[in-house]
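Document type: protein sequence-to-structure record

Subject area: structural biology

Format: plain text, a pair of labelled lines:
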Amino acid sequence: MRLLLTTDTHLTPRYPHRELPAELWDRIDAADVVVHAGDWMAPALLDAFEQRSRLLVACWGNNDGDDLRARLPETAVADVGGVRLAVTHETGAADGRERRCDARFGPDGDTPVDVLVFGHSHIPWDSTTPGGVRLLNPGSPTERRRQPACTYMTAEVRGGVLRDVARHDLPAAARRT
């Protein structure tokens, strides 16, 4: 099962030059599951993701208005091929993230999961909490904020296990930030 992970697309009339790179749309079309960790900013983008995704697991972000918040949860949880996955936008500062995420999403937390996908910082992240929760932030495909490139992630689920997690840097020509 192929997964595409993205977040912080920040498409809005305020940034009329910003668009999702063709490479990302191609990956969305090819994925079995698309995960978006919020900050869409445009209901039309959610519509497009819903139309092009076989399965969309998504949440709203801090920059998303009432229209998107009415359609999306703050935290979405899904079973993806035997992997329990959650997606939420905000996890707080990098310092202490694993501890905080274990408290909520670890084996003894309110919402135990295997994998947590999050956004907000635009900084790619891949770590595992002491309780065994894999934390992934795919970065942003449109706004690289202090990073050398705009990014997204892919992964596979095989045999009930998340495998082959990869960060993809978008070429400069594919992004307009």
